[in-house]
Amino acid sequence: MALIELSVQGMTCNHCVAAVEKALRAVPGVQTVAVHLDTNSATVEGDSMDTEALVQAIESEGYTAQVR
């Protein structure tokens, strides 16, 4: 199982956190997601995840992201 950390910019509230979590959970291979407003980050665990798909999922919600 792989662990990927992402930097997420643009989140300001718990609604933002929920939107990013939902988007990441929809990416194939993702098993667990933890999004942290205080550190502007997301940690994703799963198998055979495409890092570009993770970034695109976050950006589709209106935030910017990059793999740490």
UniProtKB/TrEMBL annotation:
GO biological process: copper ion transport
Keywords from the UniProt entry: Copper, Metal-binding
InterPro entries (UniProt xref): Cu-bd (IPR000428), Heavy-metal-associated_CS (IPR017969), HMA_Cu_ion-bd (IPR006122), HMA_dom (IPR006121), HMA_dom_sf (IPR036163)
Any one Gene Ontology molecular-function term assigned to this protein's record: copper ion binding
Domain of life: Bacteria
Keyword Metal-binding: yes
Keyword Nucleus: no
Name of a matching Pfam family: HMA
HMA domain residues: 2-66
Gene3D superfamilies for this protein: 3.30.70.100
PANTHER family: P-TYPE CATION-TRANSPORTING ATPASE
Name of the protein this chain belongs to: Heavy metal-binding protein
Species, as recorded: Acidithiobacillus thiooxidans ATCC 19377
Encoding gene (name): copA
